[in-house]
Amino acid sequence: MGDLILRAATDGELSAILEFWQVAAENESRPPDTPEAVEALLSRDPEALILAVDGARIVGSIIAGWDGWRCHLYRLAVAPWRRREGIGGLLIDAAEQRFRSFGGTRVDAMVLDDNPAAHRIWAAHGYRRQSDWSRWVKPLPAPASSSPIL
Ligand SMILES: CC(C)(COP(=O)(O)OP(=O)(O)OC[C@H]1O[C@@H](n2cnc3c(N)ncnc32)[C@H](O)[C@@H]1OP(=O)(O)O)[C@@H](O)C(=O)NCCC(=O)NCCS
After folding, report:
1. pLDDT per residue over 84-108, tens digit each?
2. How far is the CA of 90 from the centre of ligand 1 (A)?
3. Rounded distance between C-alpha atoms, residue 115 and residue 92, angstroms
4. Measured in angstroms, how far is the CA atom of residue 120 from the centroid of ligand 1?
5. Residue 121 neighbours by CB under 8 Å, 6+ apart
6. Residues at CB less than 6 angstroms from ligand 1
7. For residue 149, is pLDDT > 70?
8. What's the topology of domain 4-124?
9. Cα-to-centroid distance, 57 and ligand 1 (Å)
10. Which sequence spans correspond to the domains of the chain?
11. Residue 59: closest CA among 104, 6, 12, 119
12. Per-residue pLDDT tens for 34-90?
């Protein structure tokens, strides 16, 4: 495992995180990643983006999003050259530990149907696909600059 540590991402790592996701993450069927989007995440919840870092290099990520109501996981990714070493599992464990500290009682993960490797890691960690729910989505237009926030 070398000098692997898990820690929260920092503001100075936006470019490195985006570069890491380009090579390591599942990028189908989702809004494009932007520095502004990652910055907004870290500004709202500085501990939400957990990185696995070896030396100066990002080798894994997970977003552990707690909205005060439910626990949501996104962006589980491990560098292609570091897979099957258990890093993905460590990231899931760290995210779950975070949720438990808030009193979270159930966690969900966004998983593409056509990603069997991902199905296996989630199943290995106790996650089960729900057959009676599906996700309904609607892309949002950009806010008008003078719109009041309700
Ligand atoms: C899915 C992913 C995060 C797994 O990360 P990882 O660090 O290799 O996972 P781990 O080493 O912790 O694997 C834990 C267990 O998950 C299962 N597993 C993980 N990857 C697997 C694969 N490619 N094939 C079969 N089983 C797999 C195994 O049971 C494994 O345990 P084992 O190695 O003792 O057999 C990594 O392959 C990845 O980044 N993929 C691209 C991005 C992606 O698809 N992310 C998921 C989005 S939902």
Report:
1. 999 999 999 999 999 999 999 999 9
2. 11
3. 17
4. 7
5. 76, 88, 89, 92
6. 24-26, 76-78, 83-89, 109, 111, 115, 117-118, 120-121, 124
7. no
8. Aminopeptidase (3.40.630)
9. 19
10. 4-124
11. 6
12. 999 999 999 999 999 999 999 999 999 999 999 999 999 999 999 999 999 999 999
94-103: which pairs have CB atoms within 8 A and are 24 or more residues apart? 94/6, 94/50, 94/62, 94/64, 95/50, 95/62, 95/64, 95/71, 96/71, 98/47, 98/50, 98/64, 98/66, 99/64, 99/66, 99/71, 102/66, 102/71
Residue labelled with tokens 């949720």: 99
**Average pLDDT of the residues of the chain:** 93
Q: Give the pair of three-digit tokens for residue 58.
A: 């990002």
Amino acid identity of 53?
Answer: V
